[in-house]
Amino acid sequence: MRGGALRKAERPARSRGAAWIAAAVFFAQTSRTADIFLCPPDDARGFRGALGANSYARPMPLEPAAVNALVRSIWRRDPVARLWLLSGVYRLGPWRLPSPPAGVKGAELWLIGTNAPGASPEARPSLICKPPRGGPADRPAGPLWEAWQIRTAAPLERFALIGMTLDANWPEWAATNTAANPSWPGGFKLSALRAAARRGLVRRIRIRNCGANGKIPLPHWTAAGVEAFPLMIEATDYTAGMDPKGTGPGRPAWIVEDVEIRDFHAWHGGYATAVMAKARHPPAELADRFPRRRAVAVRRCQVCGVDSEIGFGSAASAGIACYNDAAINVRLGLNHDTPSPGGLAGMDLTHAGQSAGRGRV
Fold first, then answer.
1. How far apart are CA 336 and CA 280, in angstroms?
2. Can you tell me the distance from the alpha carbon of 209 to that of 176, in angstroms, rounded to the nearest whole number?
3. Is 27 strand, coil or helix?
4. Are the C-beta atoms of 358 and 337 separated by less than 8 Å?
C-alpha cells in the first residue's frame, strides 16, 4: 500500500513536468523570439506561467528536458537559439544538449552567462554537475564509463559558450557509490564540455573539479590509461571560415579564448588533457595549399594543473594554433600525439615537464 501510495503521489509531479514541456514547445512555436532567459531550477525568480512573458525579469527555470524541447522547437522556425543564463548556482545532472530536428540545417546554439537583476557586475552563472543517486544501478555495465557536464548530441552549425563557470564537482561524485568512487576498479572520467560544430566560440569560461579514475589493475591494452578531457572541442569542417574564393587561409572556424582550467583530480593513474582542440582532417590538397590554415585558435587560456595532466592537445589534427597560453605545473605542456601541421606563438610552459609536436615555443 505504501509503495502504491507513493507512486500515486508522484503522478501529479510527472504530469506537471509533461505539461510544462508541452507548454514550452507551444511557446516556441508561437513566439517570434529565439532568446530565452533562464535561472536556476530552484530559484524564486523562476516563472512558469504565461511563457510568452519570458524575459530578463521573468526567467524560465533551467530544467534540461523542457529547455531541450524548447530549443528543438525554436530550430524548426529559426536556426539560431540563444539561452541566456542569469547569474546564480545551477545544480544540474549531466546535460546532453538537443540534436537538430530532421531536415533542419544550420542549427546554432548559444549559451550565454549574464548578470541577474541586482547582481554584482562580476557575477556569473555557476553550473555544478550533480551526481546520480549513487546506487548500484549507476555503476556501468561496461569496462569504462564517462560523464560530461555539457555535451552536444550531434554536430551543429555553430556552438557558443560564454561567460560562466563549469564545476564538474568531482569531490561529490567521488563520495557517492558510483564509478567515480576510488573503490571502483573499472575506470571512470568526468569532464566539463564536449562540443562539435562547424564553427564555435568558447569565451571567458572557468572549469573546475574534473577527474579520472584509472583501471585497477591497469590492463596493457588500455595504453596510457584513462584520460579525461575537461574541455574538448571539434571543428567538424576544416574549410569553415576559409576565403570562399580560395585565395587565402581565412579565419579560424573555432575560437577558444580566456579559459581557465584548474583543480583536476586523479586516482589510480587517471590523467587528462585539459584543452583538447581537434579538427576533422582536411583534404590533402587543402593542407598543402594552405599550410598556415588555422581551423582552431586557442588563445589566452591558462591551465593550472597537476603532475598527471597535459595542458593542451590536438589529437594529431592539422591547423590548431595556440597563442599566448599558459600551462603551469603540468606534466606535459603541449601534446600533438604525432607531429602535425600547426603553430604556436608566445606559449608559456611554466614548470611543464616537456612539450611535444612541431611549432614555435
1. 14
2. 15
3. helix
4. no
Q: Judge whether 273 and 229 are in contact, CB under 8 Å.
A: yes
Helix (H, G, I), strand (E, B) or coil at 219: coil
For residue range 204-239, list pLDDT tens digits in order: 999 999 999 887 776 655 555 788 999 999 999 877
Alpha-carbon separation of residue 53 from 24, 50, 167 (angstroms): 12, 6, 31
Q: Is the dihedral of CA 222, 338, 284, 243 positive or negative?
A: positive
3-state secondary structure (DSSP) of residue 102? coil
Instruction: Give 260-318 pLDDT, tens digit per residue.
Output: 999 999 888 888 999 999 887 666 666 666 767 778 899 999 999 887 888 898 887 77
> How far are the Cα atoms of 139, 169, 174, 271 from residue 267, in angstroms, in the given order?
17, 15, 10, 8
Residue 42 reports pLDDT greater than 90: no
Q: What is the mean pLDDT of the chain?
A: 79
